Amino acid sequence: AQAAAQGAALAEAQRTLNAEQQRREAAEERALDLERQVAKARDALASAEAQLESAQHSVEASERELKERAEGLERELEALHGEHAKTESEASELMEKLAAAQMQEEQRALEFEAASEKLDELQVAHTEARAVLKERALLVKELQERVE
Asked: Kind and range of the H or E element at 106?
C-alpha cells in the first residue's frame, strides 16, 4: 500500500513536473515572442526616427529654398519699384518738356501771327509807297515836260 501511495505520489509529482515544464516552455515561447515584438518595435521606431530625420532635413531644405526664393522676389520687387520710380520721374520730365515745347510752339504761333500781320502792314505800306512813287514819277515827268 505504501508502494502504491508512493507510486501515486510519484505519478502526481511527475504530472506536476510535466505541467510546470509545459508552463515554463510556454513562458519561454511567450518571452521569445515578446523579444521578437520588442525587436520589431525597436526597428519600427528606428525606421520612424530615420524617416522623421529625413523629413526634417527635407523641410529645412524646403524652408531654405523658399526663403531664398522670397528674398530673390523681394530684390526683384525692390528693383521694379526703383525702375517704376525712375520711369515716373522720366515721364514727369518728359511731360514738363512737352509742356514747355507746347508753350514755345504757342509763343511761336503768336509771333508768327504778329509777323504775318506786320508783313501785311508792310505790304500795304509798300503798295501805298509804290503808288506814291508812281504819282511822283508822273509829277516829275510832267514837270520835266513843262521844263522842256
From this structure: helix 2-147
pTM value? 0.45
d(C-alpha 101, C-alpha 109), whole Å: 12
Which among 142, 121, 118 has a CA at the least distance from the CA of 129?
Answer: 121
pLDDT digits (tens, 9 = 90+) for 84-98: 999 999 999 999 999
- Grid cell, residue 116, equals 504775318
Distance (Å, rounded) from C-alpha 1 to C-alpha 9? 12
Residue pointed to by grid coordinates 515721364: 91
Q: CA 92, 90, 71 angle in degrees (round to 5)? A: 120
Residue type, 67: K
Residue burial 35-63, b: 16+ Cβ < 10 Å; e: rest? eeeeeeeeeeeeeeeeeeeeeeeeeeeee
| Angle at the Cα of 32 from the Cα atoms of 26 and 34, rounded to 5 degrees | 100
User: Over the stretch 98-126, which tens digit does the pLDDT of each residue have?
Assistant: 999 999 999 999 999 999 999 999 999 99
Q: Which amino acid is at 133?
A: L
